[in-house]
Input
Amino acid sequence: MILPEKYCDPRGAREVAGIETVDGRTCVHLIARSATAVRHEYFDAQTGLLDKVRIDRRTPLGIDPSEVRFDGYSSVNGVRLPNSITIVSTGDRVLFQFTKVEANVDIAAGKFEIPPVKK
Output
């Protein structure tokens, strides 16, 4: 799920950790700490768009790292959205690629009906 960046996470405040280079781009590095995780957010300093999120979750077995990358932003009705999202965790890698995004389109009511049980 992509949440708006004005979304306020009540689990902890964010702090600016500094300026870092991510894949050749200058990014502002923010850190949010909670009792169960440390979230690192990297925003492109030129565009202000979210480039990467790294989450280090504390588990009984140690730190469980994961990373989400946002690439190829394009404008959809004036809102910049990534064309691809890559999620990498300890044992998995998932790539979501979006070829077409539409906003505020009509959806037929039938799409929300529960299908009949198959026998």
Summary: The chain has a mean pLDDT of 87. The chain has one domain: 14-107. Residues 16 and 30 are 5 Å apart (CA to CA).
